[in-house]
Amino acid sequence: MPEYGLTLLKALAEEEFVPAELEYARFLLQRNKPEELPDAVRVLTRMTARKDPPPEALRMLADCKYGGLGTKPDPDGMIVLLRRAAKSGDAEALGKLAFCYEYGRAVLPKAVNLYRLAAERGNAKSQYKYAEFLAAGTAGGKPDLLSALPWYRRAAEQGNVQALFRMGEFRLDGIGFEKDEHEASRLFFLAAKQGYAPAQHAL
Q1: Packing angle between helix 124-136 and helix 108-120, nearest 10 degrees?
Q2: With CB atoms 3.0 to 4.6 Å apart as the test, which of 25, 35, 55, 71 could cross-link to 90 if both were Cys?
Q3: Degrees, nearest 5: CA angle 117-107-61
Q4: Is the separation of the CB atoms in 183 and 172 below 8 Å?
Q5: Up-side HSE of residue 14: CA atoms within 13 Å toward CB?
Q6: What kind and span of H or E run contains 10?
Q7: What's the average pLDDT block by block, 10 residues per block, for the chain (203 residues)?
Q8: 147: which residues sit within 8 A by CB, 6+ positions away?
Q9: Is 180 exposed, middle or buried (0-12, 13-18, 19+ CB in 10 A)?
Q10: What is the pLDDT of residue 113?
Q11: Closest CA to 116 of 97, 88, 103
Q12: Cβ atoms of 81 and 48 closer than 8 Å
């Protein structure tokens, strides 16, 4: 973005025009210049202090608090922000919150439930994770590959590399689907193109 364009975007953001605030903060975070990150945090903090902030602003500020971008790392503050975004049904926030619960922030059943909610709202990573829990039987109950397969498929259709790889394995071995080496190769190739090493090896 030309610097003049950034100046205009910042001016609109300072007028508290929500689309400009989001775009300005997103741009600064993506550009990742240490001297600019605090300004992104300032704008996002202002946005999240409002009554009904956009879930994206909550998620971006949560990412800042998680990685210490433009602010001190604050895992507890990150969880609070993700919970607020998740309450609105935001799929990405639900998935991120589930990840936090899965890896030490709370108990596994809560993580599974959050992955399910995010999966139902179309988040590909969560669809894959929920499928893995179902297939392994850690979602409560016995392993249930039959219930997991549609979630793997939905995640693969969105290009999730892990789901593409798993679907390739199922097609190669004839698990849940008719055995089809050509389709398996296609799925492995799609994952391999994204740099996924297990798919590259399988291909």
Answers
A1: 130
A2: 55
A3: 60
A4: no
A5: 7
A6: helix 3-14
A7: 82 93 94 92 95 94 90 87 91 89 69 89 94 82 88 97 96 92 96 94 92
A8: 134
A9: middle
A10: 85
A11: 97
A12: yes
